Fold these 2 entries.
Entry 1:
Amino acid sequence: MKMKLKPIVEMLRNLNVDELTEVMMILTGSKPETVIVDPIKSFKELILKRKATSLGDRPYCPHCQSHRVVKNGHKDGRQRFICKDCKHTYTWTNNTILYGMKISYDTLLKYCDCMMHKMTIRQCATCCRISKSSSFDWRHKILDALQNMHNEVVLNGIIESDETYFGLSFKGCKNPDILTRLPHKRGGSNHVRGISDELVCVPCSVNLDGLSIGKITNLGRPTTDELSGFIKGRIEEGSFFVTDSLNSYDQIAEDNNLTHIKIENGKHKNGMFNIQKINSYHSELKRMINDLFKGVATKYLNNYVVYHNFINIAKESIIEKAKILKEFVCSTLCNSRGYKVNLRDAIPV
């Protein structure tokens, strides 16, 4: 069987994004998406769908959310608007990831397709014919916008929770003053064995419907307060909360009115409940970060957790996810700027 699949795999690797998408449509029986004839018109319709005023042909003010806006001429071929309340002027792209971008909207859509296929930054740059630095900035601007979707997720039903750990990484860091340890030469193990401050704790929760949350909370072992801050407001009351034997979860379940199902040490399940889904979640997350992307800097780890949640865990088809990604990240409120991406704190806790 492996010998029969090998030539097919090799053939698929030589296809571009559009061809891979067409193959996925054939395999899943999905209908092809509507062809975008005018990308700019499509973008304007998308903005109006989420931010239209009562007049219906212009977005509301991104500065004060007022609907009392009027058209205010053109600059560089782009329609401008002015708010009658705060007197600020703006364009269609204000407070979106497209603000200040020097590329076309259809190129950004193509980049989203590359991300849906989990291409590396270099592969995305080659496919979209842009520089590696632009590809890096675009990836994190898109993932910053996707964080807004992640922040709205509330889990219910049966939720499995556990923590996973990543080694501190200062990949790409050129400033020795912010390093909290001696740099590793081409990777290597931590200087301290076991769970220590050289490991970043990432608590994660996932339910059976494909919804998931995850975020860096601390270095080393988490305290009850740190785990509670991560869980608070993210799980509906009355849900089943399935965890390992960490004592902190007892207090968290009580504070959030959750039915706590604890898997004791040495056990794999408690009745019909287990934590296999969250263990699989952690395995897939580490496989993507460590194997596919060859490690990421700690300051970008939260973005890649959200990336994993959307690409690998959500149950929608790849075609549906691509549509959601394009519509959401291009129109949601996001002030991320490319020149600020690498200026983030080395350890975001």
Entry 2:
Amino acid sequence: MSMRSWVARLLAGLAACCVAASAVGALPGSRPTTMAPAVVAFVVPMGSGAAATVPPASSSFSTGDGSAPTGSPAPSASVASSLGSAVPDVVAPAAPTATLTQDPSAGATPTTAPSATTPAVAPTPHPPPATPAATPAATTPTVIQVRDRPLGTPAATTPAAPSGPLPVLSHGDRNTRVIALTIDDCYSPAAVRADLAILEAERVNATWFPIGTNVAASPALWRAIAQAGFPIANHTETHPILTGLPYAAVLAQIRDDEATVARITGRPAVPFLRPPGGAYDATVLAAAQAAGERALVLWDTTDGDTGRPYDDIVLIERHAEQGHGGSILLMHANLPYAQQALPSIIAWYRARGYTFVTLGQLFGVPGPVPFPGPAGAPLATAAPIGAVTPTAPAATYPSPTLRPMPC
């Protein structure tokens, strides 16, 4: 074989490869971009000296939709026949495993296409993470601060509603000729001694309502009063106005006074509460009942010894002599004036057939009676608590909560 013939065969083979490559790029589903030579022309002396011309292949991008790219026609039959035996055993090259593709909508940035022989496997979708069940919010107990105690100490509990309301009494049975004399506060030990001397000399029953701190300040005096048989009732430990105070504070005032009287005198206080100023509300009633009191005792008659003029003895007597059957008479042992009027007051009631009784005698509650004999005869038929209709105090003080001075 001559050199010329060998070169002609080589050129014919190269041309056939270019045409075959163009044909592979146009297969359906193919996306590779193949740049064919602009013009392949050569003259192959083939016996008669005729020239075989390979038509040019245009360069284009794959459309990506399976159609033949524009400008990339399939090779004609004349080309194939012209090559004839000049292209022995031409084998199309294998499709590349990866090539560059161009997305017409994304400009000229190349991307890596998946292998043509390996089908793309869509990623297995992972189920979304399970949402944990909502945990119910922990219940935070409401903490209520009680004003009369430090934080961290147990709160006092208001007792349940009593089976019956605590009686609020300002007098006893109106059909009896009795007077219940009561003496409050007792700030002045001298006034207390003066009253005690008159009561013992006249054999008059009376009920004392001292303040707890005053009892503690004069222990010997109050032991003597208790030993003489006089009942001592509850007027609180320090004499605060109880309305508006928290329940625990009211209860403490009542119980502390009871404890003071029992500790000093060796005897329990009788179960009657007189709130300072006569002021009370539902809290006071509940606390008194929880403390074991039998009644909240007010008054319907007073001698006015806490109002001005303090030293008008005649005026004090006139106020005190307004009582009638079953009246509760209020006096104080704070100043040295009521004691001067007390003998005349006792004489005035006795002259009209009245007998002086303790509150226990007036309401049928057991307790000490200093003079149970003829001068201080007990009630033939005591009016038990609950049988007496509570009434407001006398017109001298129309509302016990509006009294000008504490009782």
